[in-house]
Fold this sequence. Notes:
Structural class of chain B: alpha/beta
CATH architecture of the largest domain in chain A: Sandwich
Number of domains of chain A: 2
Strand order of the largest sheet of chain A: 1-2-9-4-7-10
Helix content of chain A: 40-55%
Strand order of the largest sheet of chain B: 1-4-3-2
CATH topology of the largest domain in chain A: Jelly Rolls
Oligomer: heterodimer
Largest sheet of chain A: 6 strands, antiparallel
Low-confidence stretches of chain B: none
Distance between the termini of chain A: 17 Å
Number of helices of chain A: 12
Order of helices and strands of chain B: EHEEEEHEEE
Number of strands of chain A: 10
CATH superfamily of the largest domain in chain A: Jelly Rolls
Mean pLDDT of chain A: 90
Shape of chain A: globular
Largest sheet of chain B: 4 strands, mixed
Amino acid sequence: MSRQADARFASRRPAPPLRPYVDRYVGYRLDGVADAVHRGLPSRHLTMISSIGAPIEVLAQADPAQRPDVFDFVVAGLQVTPALIAADGPQEGVTIELTPFGCRALLGMPPLALWNCAVEADAVIGRAATELHHRLHETPRWADRFAECDEVLSRLLRAEPPAVDERLRGAWQLLVASGGRIAVSDLADRIGWSRRHLAQRFTGEFGLSPKAAARVLRFERACALLRSACRPAIADVALTCGYYDQPHLNRDFAALAGCPPAAWLATELPFVQDSDGAPRADSPA
Amino acid sequence: MSDNRPAVWPILSYTDARAAIAFLTQAFGFEERAVYARDNDPSVIEHAEMRWPLGGGVMFGSAGKDDSPFGRRLPGNDSVYVVCDDPDALFERASAAGAEVVKGLEDEDYGSRGFTVRDPEGNLWSFGTYPGE
């Protein structure tokens, strides 16, 4: 089947019933660069990535205890360290950005169960994974591929998605809304729990502590600003995102990305999607 | 949906408590009520509460999570009896999820129909229609 030459990157929000559970679909098509490595960075999402063509070769897992592996359709849990993915050949695929609530509603398990690990999707959602992977192969246009995602994920959506404790849901949403800038003690006060109770229940649901989640959210925002079209200075990004100063941002980068911000930008620029410049797949491709 | 406030709680311990939450949910249909994990090491479950849809439930934490007599217990030595409505369907579900069958579906002379399986860490789970006297 000849592939229509539409955009290298495309993204779309899912169908409305899926929106509490999936933030976005992102399609990518990359040529690859000799010896290049892509960093799968910590974020607020669990990610499902279905490859089209060459499989996804994970050179280093977020959890060093998990061995390198190759996936057709990977589900990666929340994490606080990067995964390294081979990017030396042509790559194409669709990333599904799952919210922690989507983990329960679509995958039938709490994010804790997938914390810091990567698994083949069929181990989690069975034949739906094989089916979607196959359909994405057969469908050349981004818009149609995203429609296939809508179709298969809607079937996974349970009639009554398992409820997440309202206070845990609220705590996650407050953290996200603040860009990770709310203090954990303020968060505990807002929720009406002690810090310790909040920390243990939060970790029991999401797999990471509120403090670690705040760190990931600040980092995610810093990454988005750094690669945005206006390319602000790193020191300005640090202040905007709630870091005490630029060395603090550098320190978080070392831990969460495994390299300094400038090095990440230099190696990732061929691969990152400008959040503003991305062609939209919901316009006919 | 009888008893919302059970007054007796079996307490177990698991080496991989995170896997136990998944297993009890998938294999038997327990419902997770609350999970407390250690905030700097989420593999350590401090406390988990799983409810049984017909009433009651179990509690457990990670084996070796602390130095208390509970934390030091060796996992895999407990047994729990659970009342169920449809032992045939449950037996199929549990075996499909990989529970090791210890005693297959049987009708007992006291009128109960049920079975016994072992969970991945060795605890025995008996299910039957006998609801107690």
